[in-house]
Amino acid sequence: MGANLASFLYLVSGILFILALRGLSHPTTSRQGNVYGMVGMAIAIGTTLLYATPSFGGFVLIVVGLAIGGGIGAVIAKRIAMTAMPQLVAAFHSLVGLAAVMVAAAALYAPESFGIGELGAIHAQALVEMSLGVAIGAITFTGSIIAFLKLDGRMSGKPIMLPMRHVVNAGLAIALVVMIVLLVTTQSTTIFWLIVAASLVLGVLIIIPIGGADMPVVVSMLNSYSGWAAAGIGFTLGNLALIITGALVGSSGAILSYIMCKGMNRSFISVILGGFGGETAAAADDDMDRTVKQGSADDAAYLMANAQKVIIVPGYGMAVAQAQHALRELADKLKEAGVEVKYAIHPVAGRMPGHMNVLLAEAQVPYDEVFELEDINSEFAQADVAYVIGANDVTNPAARDDKSSPIYGMPILDVDKARTCLFVKRSLGSGYAGIDNTLFYKDGTMMLLGDAKKMTEDIVKAMDH
């Protein structure tokens, strides 16, 4: 295969990736977007195999590697539960970062194989690209591992505030710049591995102070990092497809992170520099009546059956209980009774961008019934019932009313403005942000304590009686 044909096919795959991102931006076109992405990746892989593989032995090794990796990926994708998707994404990001480090190391020790010079005489431009790729890749690797451990519950979701962390991070960043300059001038393998070590440490220090309330932003941010790492290595390899793909992933991840930070009224820089300490519980208001009104499935069924408008607010509790199908059945039952039903999604509901949208789509909830925060928040005041199913932090009025709260300023779904708020939760414990939800104690709130799926199913049964 000629170089011109390979470049053309890489360009085609890049266009397909752009169409994939466009398709994935809306639920109705997401399946088509996935198809575009898969076709684009197939073209990119096929072109690389036919054009860039130097020998038959190398071709066999690559195919074997693809078979092993693809087989492992297929098994994981088939077995993984939707509730574990955020930590799976974080784990996959770590592999992208590690791959960037390994490719950069291979290019350093065998530059002639990459067409970037000879050992000890590598082109300066390639060294700069390699340095940036390996630094971002190493940061992505350890940062993603920490995110995985926090999301999977193997490490506390609370921020770990190290003393003088900003000074240490700044010092490491300056040291990285100095070492990159030294690598370009000396081409020392020792300096290269020092860059790797410093970047690995920096990845840990960046993510450890970030609390659970910021985890959706962290996942998106690491996605962006993995893209930039891939793009940097793409320049080293001279691979057009890798450059395009990495740039698309990096820029789209950065834009998504910005949108999510805006949705939480947080500075992206402040999140990167250590989060906003969401796990430190706010001091309780001594003047507040903390009496809880507890109800049953029968109570909830009566209230919803006699409502004119019900707004459903899904959260991570719905994901854990796998209650989306029972929720769809409840909504269908309400619509049959002439009740208007809508779904309200907060930008950071769940632990991964789009988490709730995917679950609702799995239950075949109509797309035109699902609304984002800014489109539906004004409607809660006209709703008879807000049915909150496991969405804790994103409905906490403290974010709106209590300036001492760690989440103050974060836009929330105004479920407390509905005539009645039915809140399904296993207990009165705090959410992922680790703070008490004052919504539990408001006059218009009725707590439905129990498993979200069973409670929803019991409500449906009670409506039949």
UniProtKB/TrEMBL annotation:
EC class: translocase
Pfam families registered for this protein in UniProt: PNTB
Protein name listed in UniProt: NAD(P) transhydrogenase subunit beta
Keyword Cell inner membrane: yes
Entry superkingdom: Bacteria
Family in the record: Belongs to the PNT beta subunit family.
Keyword field contains NAD: yes
Bilayer-crossing regions: 6-23, 35-52, 58-77, 89-110, 130-151, 167-185, 191-210
Free-text function comment from the UniProt entry: The transhydrogenation between NADH and NADP is coupled to respiration and ATP hydrolysis and functions as a proton pump across the membrane.
Catalysed reaction, written as an equation: NAD(+) + NADPH + H(+)(in) = NADH + NADP(+) + H(+)(out)
SUPFAM superfamilies: DHS-like NAD/FAD-binding domain (SSF52467)
